[in-house]
Structure prediction request, 313 residues.
Amino acid sequence: MEIDQVETFIAVVTYGGFHRAAAALHVSQPAVSARIRALEDSLGAKLFTRSHAHLMLSAAGKALRPHAEQLLRNIALARQAVHELQPSARGALNIAAALSVCTYFIPDVMKDYKAANPKVMVSLRAGTSAQVLKMVLDGEADIGVARSLHHPEVETMTLRDDPLILVGHPSHPNTRQRSVRLEQVEEWPLIFYDRGSSDWTLSQGLFRRAGLLPNVVLEVDSIEAAKRMVERKLGLSFLPQIAIAQELRQGKLAAVEITNAEQLERDLDVIHARTRPLSRDAQAFLQLLRAAAAAPVQVEPKPRKPRASQVRR
Prediction:
């Protein structure tokens, strides 16, 4: 049993087939097949079966899977232990993150990190989820933070959920009702952003599944642009919670609940390469990410204190 055979086994399980596993591992499909055959020969058992053209784990494959995953984790820890002894193991940290994460989530984490690690040179690059994954796979980033980041060569940890919330300006006519049906929202002026992105697809899909056609009055290229348009009462928009939590708390934006549709759920994930150990600097940053994500997100407006003239004597 060899490491590349175990990694290939996990890749086939993750992607559900030899062809997609080969593409993910950047090797040929015959190479994947050869590694799986060699692994099966060493174990004396078949790891996969086919049923109606679908590849499935055999009983032996199901038994092997948790041990294979643990083995890859242990290998990463072993590499990390050796890596930590190298004199050059500290002093630089490369992070890749989705633009919204860079804008609304990372800054507070970075403030705490730099206060505790002032000598560490940090590089933060923004990109789409696919670009973040590629930067981690190519070794350009130690840690990646985005959404739906899954690949057999990376460890994925979900930090927290980050739903899309329908919001408008508090004085916009359509925010007078805080609980409505999707059929009502269909007629409202809506602002969409970043056509083709996962957020655009999620929000458009909400109407498509119900056989409705949203009234799109404006399309912009970013979350921040959409938020600014909403603040100017040009329409309502489905925006990520991390991008609007402060405005909701301050009462600058108002959330509208759709009673007959599912919430648009999204996960905020952090990834790092399985085969490259995390330095102490990266581990420290990861701990701060997890702590920040674990903190409760307050989105309800803070109650206003009565003015002195309003207080009865």
Observations:
- The chain has three domains: 3-83, 92-160+267-294, 164-258.
- The mean pLDDT is 88.
- Residues 59-83 form the longest helix (25 residues).
- The CA atoms of residues 189 and 217 lie 6 Å apart.
